[in-house]
Specification:
The complex is a heterodimer of chains A (about 750) and B (about 290). By secondary structure, chain A is of the alpha+beta class. Chain A folds into 3 domains: about 30-130 and about 190-245 and about 250-280, Aldehyde Oxidoreductase, domain 3, CATH 3.90.1170.50; about 360-450 and about 605-755, Aldehyde Oxidoreductase, domain 4 (2-Layer Sandwich); about 460-600, 2-Layer Sandwich (Aldehyde Oxidoreductase, domain 4). Helices cover about 30% and strands about 25% of the residues of chain A. In chain A, α9 (about 320-330) runs parallel beside α10 (about 360-380). Chain A starts with 15 loop residues before the first helix and ends with a helix. In chain A, about 60% of the residues are buried. Chain B has about 290 residues and is of the alpha+beta class. Chain B folds into 3 domains: about 5-50, no CATH class; about 60-170, Uridine Diphospho-n-acetylenolpyruvylglucosamine Reductase, domain 3; about 175-285, CO dehydrogenase flavoprotein, C-terminal domain (Enolase-like, domain 1, 2-Layer Sandwich), CATH 3.30.390.50. Chain B has a 5-stranded antiparallel sheet with strand order 4-5-10-6-7. In chain B, α10 packs antiparallel against α11 (about 240-250) and α11 (about 240-250) packs across α12. Chain B is globular and about 60 Å long. The chains are: A alpha+beta (about 750), B alpha+beta (about 290). The interface of A and B includes residues 624, 683, 686, 689 and 751 of A.
């Protein structure tokens, strides 16, 4: 593979120092002298109509500057789904509505001089509710005669299906038919930084919005739409963001804050509490997934059927788009000539499910890799061999439009994991020691590079080179902690020949940065990285073409690296970039600025692949599962920054372990209220719970990307949960088809299995 | 977010007791890890607080026949105390199992006890160790065994004007003695016990059990001692069968309930298993053989 100067190196994060010392200011750190604090009154009922609301007592409380209800906001239906235009889920949301559809739906909002006054004011708002029938499960919401949450939609936020080949015919030919139903839990993002916004008016009366967001450009577009404003009247600024994981890929309550700012004319900060973040922002869909696969005697998949119902909660948000993403994974990882897929997204009166890291694929993989394990065991084929036989190999056909594969390190990744975890040796080790039983499990995954072709994926980037050959990179893509700012600078430095330390970054300000939909779909390095490379390369070309005359050499001989113009023939430095750029700006005859903007939009979607393997120890008397070791190998193409990449791998793996073992948002079956809206009862793993994790990158060189790279942010969050589930099956012989594998669930499953034996 | 009406910061015990007597509505603030959470949730508001921050209530003293723990001792101080580490390591385990380092740095053992929670990480060990509490008011001191102190969920026998001023732990012969605390929770830190199990075992020269104490947290509305199981074990040389029977008998003292955190069925299984595991380990530490 070609060698690069900056790409492929573990350059330190550009924000590392600021974040480690506390110099980095987040939205919650920002202060304005006359800033107000906002608080939201949330619905105490899962489904209700506001019969009467009286805010007069709250408004009269000293220190209260504004109280707003549905009567004070534009009633323009929109969807919060933070995808590129056009809207791709039902326009079922309002900034504030008279119709409340889950416990937590905003009823009213207050802006006051202090948080305490705002909280007191909430208690003075008098509301008379008319309670409506509420449904918390898919079955209840789809039952005959169920009231519609959203008029005319029959409680379906989306439904889709496709069939390839002749599924029934193939099933009839099959030697084995394996069937499974798997249920996955509701989980939530839990970024360190809560959802927070500060909105103020500039001297022209434009809205200036400081958002903790993954999608600055889309926030502006969605805000303008919901408020009935022109986009030019709104400026969105994104600074440091303390994590998003998909939960900040759409407006949540930011439009409320914008209204409060316009009402009061003052800066208003709205910072959600942890309880609000857990119960009233967004979640990962829970799903019930039914699978049926027909196989030949020697273990080849002939036909697969998947039927998925997901609970999308009170509003569609990303809704059914998640099912589209699942469909892509379903069709690609295990090439099968005959496929049938059917999915529904069901409205219920529970918190809203939206985008969450790996967008449907953790749910899908938990089901599919459980199913695959079932097949291997039923046919008596080794789990790894079975997966090797059926999973994607380069050249296999792809049964999905606009997906193609030109690099695939999956089989190498399986080999790597097998060796690193000591699979063959483990199979020979003793497994049982009294009540303690050990097992090993595997799971594979595939993942795309963007939302294409579902969405248009356009990223812009601009590089401005200064007189002295320092530069500024303007991008619209969003650093939210994953490290993209650093990676984009590496790409800009590589492509321009300007040292990384000489390039500043402006990101993101919708007034000055090029359009980019933002951080989701693990798209940024793939899509925006291309735009950055093109803009930086265009600057380099502009400089080199100017230098041709000065140096009297052919353009083809010139290159730039590390601040110098290089002679390609001799690899010798010829002249510093700054000597040339200064002349360009102050040329007596043809002075010229050096500033290039480029964009990129993919016309195809590639696949990233990987595998996780886990060894677990199950305490069969208590049901406690201890992960002894987790190994993950991923083909994310070429790695731009190995240290940051390993951070993503570790972080994603840890998040997936939480999904597999401990995290689940619990809904009270009577009231629809979230029972565990705090981090004591919503069990995100602590560092003490993290097992040894070994990560490997199988570096392929993806020709369609800027530097051979493929997606990386979300993929590590897919396989570990189900690898652990399969390891528990291996240890105990009990297949648990519902996550997470909490001690109690495992204990009860083992007990039930024992009772069945007797 | 915190609605405080008034804060007292007394520097002497008599001063504190006088304030408590004159303002019986006062809430005592120790580490604040329970009180501040309640205030933030508005379960307490417009409160008058009496902070123990300046009172000399922390520290551990070895008085030979008993160890006296100041109720203002933080869990970190407790876990790092050399007397505790050599004489009562089970309480160090309990201290380190509670919350995370930040919580352990401010939360106190006295606050943990007076909060009255059945899930208090210090409680099962204090029950198994037969701790006695000194409760002090302007009128003087009284001593209450910890087993009588808890009266219900979140309720303790603290009279108006009274505060906890000392925790006494009888510490006899250390030879042939073992004590263990097992916290069972989903996570290894920052978690609440699904079940807490503490056991103390003392062996006679002939290897028989002369003292067996098994205490459980979250197995009933208050922490409890499993007296039937203890009676079965006392005077005997444990065998695997005897321990199984003790586990079953441990249930007689318990009345676990189903909540969304765990079902009754599961808690009962844990009580049987963890009472045995704790006692088994205490027995081993006392010099008994591993079973």
């Amino acid at each position: 593979m070609k060698k690069y100067n900056v790409v492929g190196k573990s350059v330190p994060r550009i924000d590392a120092w600021a974040k480690a010392t506390g110099a980095a200011k987040y939205v919650g750190d920002m202060q304005r002298p006359d800033m107000l604090h906002a608080k939201i009154l949330h619905s105490p009922l899962a489904h209700a109509w506001i019969r009467r609301i009286d805010v007069s007592r709250a408004a009269a409380l000293p220190g209260v500057r504004a109280v707003i209800t549905y009567m004070d906001v534009p009633q323009i239906p929109f969807t919060t789904c933070g995808h590129p235009y056009p809207f791709d889920t039902p326009k079922d949301s309002l900034i504030l509505s008279r119709h409340l559809r889950y416990v937590g739906d905003p009823v009213a909002a207050v802006a006051a001089d202090t948080q305490e006054i705002a909280l007191d004011a909430l208690e003075l708002i008098e509301v008379e509710y008319e309670e409506l029938p509420a449904y918390f499960t898919i079955d209840a919401a789809l039952a005959e005669g169920a009231v519609e949450l959203h008029e005319g939609l029959k409680n379906l936020a989306g439904e889709s299906e496709f069939e390839i080949g002749d599924v029934e015919g193939a099933m009839a030919q099959a030697d084995f038919i394996i069937e499974d139903t798997v249920e996955t839990p509701i989980v939530t993002h839990s970024p360190i930084e809560p959802h927070v916004s500060l909105v103020e008016l500039d001297e022209q009366g434009r809205l200036v919005c400081y958002f903790s967001t993954q999608v600055p450009s889309i926030m502006r577009e969605r805000l303008a739409y919901a408020l009935g404003m022109r986009m030019g009247q709104i400026r969105v600024v994104k600074g440091h963001v303390g994590g998003g994981f998909g939960g900040k890929q759409e407006p949540i309550f930011e439009p409320i804050n914008a209204v409060l700012t316009m009402k009061t004319g003052k800066p208003v900060r709205l910072e959600l509490t942890r309880e609000e973040c857990l119960a009233c922002t967004r979640t990962r869909h829970s799903a019930r997934i039914h699978m049926r696969t027909g196989l030949t005697r020697d273990g080849k998949m002939l036909a697969r059927i998947m039927d998925i119902d997901q609970n999308t909660g009170a509003y569609s948000s990303h809704g059914h788009n998640v099912v589209f993403a699942i469909a892509m994974a379903f069709a690609t990882l295990y090439p099968t000539p005959n496929l049938r897929f059917h999915g529904r997204s069901v409205y219920t009166n529970i918190p809203i499910a939206g985008a969450m890291r790996a967008y449907g694929c953790p749910q899908y993989a938990f089901a599919m890799e459980s199913h695959v394990e079932h097949m291997a065991r039923e046919l008596g084929i080794d789990s790894l061999e079975f997966r090797r036989k059926n999973s994607y190999h380069l050249g296999d056909p792809i049964n999905f439009p606009h997906v193609s594969v030109s690099t695939c390190g999956l089989q190498d990744a399986i080999d790597q994991c097998e060796e690193a975890i000591g699979y063959q040796a483990f199979l020979k080790e003793p497994r049982s020691d009294g009540t303690s039983k050990r097992g090993i499990g595997t799971a594979l995954f595939s993942y795309g590079q963007s939302c294409y072709p579902h969405s248009v994926e356009l990223s812009g980037a601009r590089v401005r080179v200064n007189e002295d050959a320092t530069a500024t990179l303007y991008i619209g893509c969003a650093e939210i902690g994953q490290g993209t700012d650093t990676v984009m600078l590496q790409i800009a430095a590589e492509a321009s020949g300007i040292p990384l330390a000489d390039i500043n970054l402006v990101a993101v300000d919708t007034d000055s940065c090029p359009f980019d939909p933002g951080a989701y779909a693990s798209r940024q390095t793939y899509v925006a990285g291309h735009a950055v490379k093109k803009a930086a390369a265009a600057c380099k070309e502009q400089i080199l073409r100017y230098a041709v005359n000065k140096l009297s050499v052919n353009y083809e001989r010139l290159d730039a690296a590390d601040g110098w113009i290089i002679d390609r023939d001799t690899d010798q430095r010829m002249v510093s970039l700054k000597e040339i750029t200064m002349q360009m700006y102050y040329d007596c005859h043809t002075p010229v600025t050096i500033c290039q903007e480029e964009s990129f939009a993919p016309t195809d979607n590639m696949l990233t692949f990987g595998v996780s393997m886990a060894i677990v120890k199950v305490d069969t008397a208590t049901g406690k599962v201890e992960v002894e070791k987790l190994v993950t190998a991923i083909d994310s193409g070429r790695i731009i920054n190995p240290q940051l990449a390993m951070g993503q791998l570790n972080g994603g793996n840890i998040m997936s372990l939480g999904y597999g073992l401990s995290e689940q948002l619990l809904i009270d079956p009577k009231s629809g209220r979230v029972l565990n809206d705090n981090l004591l009862d919503y069990k995100v793993p602590t560092f003490a719970d993290v097992p040894p994790i070994e990560g490997y990158f199988i570096e392929t060189d993806e020709p369609s990307s800027a530097y051979g790279n493929k997606s990386l942010g979300e993929p590590p969050n897919i396989a570990p949960a189900v690898a652990v589930r399969n390891a528990v099956l291996d240890a105990t012989g009990v297949a648990i088809n519902q996550g997470p594998l909490t001690p109690e669930r495992v204990y009860l499953a083992l007990k039930a299995a024992k009772e069945q034996e007797v | 977010m915190y609605f405080v009406k008034k804060l007292y910061l007394p520097e002497t015990l008599p001063e504190a007791l006088k304030i408590l007597k004159e303002h019986p509505e006062t809430t005592i603030l120790a580490g604040g890890t329970d009180v501040l959470v309640k205030m933030r949730h508005k379960r307490m508001r417009d409160v008058t607080l009496l902070s123990l921050a300046k009172l000399p209530l922390s520290g551990v003293e070895d008085k030979g026949d008993e160890i006296v723990i100041g109720p203002g001792t933080t869990f970190t101080a407790l876990a790092e105390n050399p007397i505790m580490q050599t004489r009562l390591p089970m309480l160090c385990t309990a201290a380190r199992s509670m919350g995370g380092p930040q919580i352990q740095n401010v939360a106190t053992i006295g606050g943990n006890v007076c909060n009255g929670a059945t899930s208090a990480d210090s409680a099962p060990s204090l029950f198994a160790l037969d701790a006695v509490l000194t409760l002090t008011s302007a009128g003087g001191d009284r001593r209450v065994p910890i087993r009588e102190f808890y009266t219900g969920p979140g309720r303790v026998k603290l009279e108006s004007g009274e505060m906890l001023t000392a925790i006494h732990i009888p510490a006899g012969e250390q030879a042939r003695w073992g004590g263990v605390y097992i916290k069972f929770s989903t996570r290894k830190a920052m978690d609440i016990a699904i079940l807490g199990s503490a056991a103390v075992c003392e062996l006679g020269e002939d290897g028989r059990v002369i003292k067996a104490a098994i205490a459980m947290g979250v197995a009933a509305p208050t922490p409890v001692r499993c007296t039937d199981a203890e009676a079965l074990l006392t005077g005997k040389t444990p065998t695997a069968e005897l321990l199984q029977e003790a586990g079953r008998l441990a249930l007689t003292a318990c009345s676990p309930r189903s909540s969304w955190r765990a079902t009754k069925e599961y808690r009962e299984a844990l009580i049987q298993e963890l009472s045995v595991r704790a006692f088994q380990e205490a027995y081993r530490l006392a010099g008994g053989k591993a079973l």
